[in-house]
Amino acid sequence: MTPPVRVRCFARAREVAGTSELMFDAATVPALGALRARLVADLGSDFAAVLAVSRLWVNGDEPSHADDTPLRAGDEVAVLPPVSGG
Question: Which CATH number characterizes residue 31's domain?
Fold first, then answer.
């Protein structure tokens, strides 16, 4: 079995998604933009609003090619909303 692309949701993203982790077959999300579209399709407009202000990091790094960054089986994408407080 091929390992999935794992999406880890933090802070507000976790609250809106209702979970801290989502899994996708790598064949269905070949690039970061495809994953972003899939997240919006699956989780709706509230999650789209969170994505609009969040950073998406791939395997602990800022993606080198924005939404064109390729994803492979076993990759981990972190959804990092802005942090408030003080």
Answer: 3.10.20.30
